[in-house]
Amino acid sequence: MEGITCSGWQEIYGQEKAISLLRAGLRRGDIPHALLFTGPSGVGKFGTALLFAAAALCTSGEPDGCASCRKVAAGVHPDLHVLEPEGFSIKVEAVRKLEAELSGKAVESAAKAVIIDEADAMTHEAANAFLKTLEEPTPNTYIVLVCESKENLLPTVVSRCREVRFTALGQRDLERFLVEREGLQEEEARKMARRSGGVFGRALLWARRPELAAHWRRGVGLAASLRRLSLLEALEIVEECRGDWEKMEAKGGGGELEAYTRALDKRAAEQLRKRWEGRKAQEMRKARRRAAHDLLDGMASFYRDIMLLNLIEEEGLGVEDEVLFNPERRKELEREALHVGAERARACLGILHEAGKALEANVDEKLLLHGLILQLRKAT
Length: 380
Ligand SMILES: [Zn+2]
Fold this sequence. Notes:
Strand content: 5-15%
Low-confidence stretches: none
Number of strands: 5
Mean pLDDT: 89
Strand order of the largest sheet: 2-3-4-1-5
Number of helices: 15
Helix content: 55-70%
CATH class of the largest domain: Mainly Alpha
Bound molecules: zinc ion
Order of helices and strands: HEHHEHEHEHEHHHHHHHHH
Radius of gyration: 23 Å
Structural class: alpha/beta
């Protein structure tokens, strides 16, 4: 649930089993020192890991919104250590640095908490180095590894952790959540649930920060106008998008960090500042990657609608608005469907799918997007 900070268990939706397990363990004081949170992307694993860390570091044993818990939520608690991929992997140097940090005493709390997000991004070397931390834990240290599936981790790492499973949420759960908790109208909730691809964290981000859905909508607009635009115009739109991604700012300013570090000694404050800056930079990279994926997804939704219109109409049936991602563009879709056809729409989806994979593989973004526009224009 990156990008959204939770202040209490009630904010994690649909994961009652995982949460009651954690809370019971915290109450009894018998939490295994290493936990492994698994489950599909965007269902609240990271948010729960942060809440768990807050509870473990708090004197009340619950994320209760006290000063310590707020520091955890803001990522500036000196006894919380978050390890995330830098670029596309978690390298052995990062694990060694973490080990060094853990060897010291806790600064403010009686315990230390470690969250390794996207733990499957650890290189083989990093995972092996991390085994040492798992085998010889420093006292009062809680470790949470977060990843989609344990299959992608070294079995020796998995066997030293207690797995906590997070369940996939259905379209209906997501809709209900958006209506009940986020106050959306039913129609709007249904649309958002579909457009987010059922990814909970993404729908939540869009509901709370509507400006983020703009990247997706821009993708729809780009796909809709692609055949009418000159190549130069299309590339200009892509460059405009990239310019906007550049300007996106991560939440939270340095001011709040200053307030938190004031009470620490110089060395600890410096360490915390470095860690915080690293996290912010990482968050920015993630937000940017998410925006690029949203653009591609928005485009794909347009071609999916075209394919659907063609296929259903071939059967001589009418197409209900409800099955379309973009019912408000129905006229445009019908016009484009006549030109593009189901086969070519399918080819475009394939091209977009490949582009999405390439984005994950750290290909040069500009080259990738420009190449994508050329390919799509050729295909339509
Ligand atoms: Zn607290």
